[in-house]
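Journal club side-thread
Mid-discussion, someone asked how the predicted structure for our own chain would compare to the paper's figures. Pasting it here so we can look after the session.
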Amino acid sequence: MKPRAETPQRKKQMGSSKYQYLLGDPDVMRWFMNECRGSEITGRERLRRLGAICERFDTTPQELGKMTPKEAKNFLLDMVTEMEQVGLRANYIRTHTRQRYSEYYG
């Protein structure tokens, strides 16, 4: 299935996120549009989190998607450890890990 043509409504939905470049990948776009079905705000926030994690941990959505369950688990554990070490609060960490877990394991 091809991505839909760009419309004014779709441009509005995508917003002007720092991480909008991620939407150039058809799989990321498909995921993002699905996230926006529930709530446009939630979709944009999850795109922002995905972009921030990819930036912070020097990875891409494609690399995250190719991880085996064991690699994904280790990535999540390493991510939590690093976030704790820089003093991030547990609730902040939990929102990021919950999202990653749902992306890997549905």
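Post-session note: The chain has one domain: 11-105.
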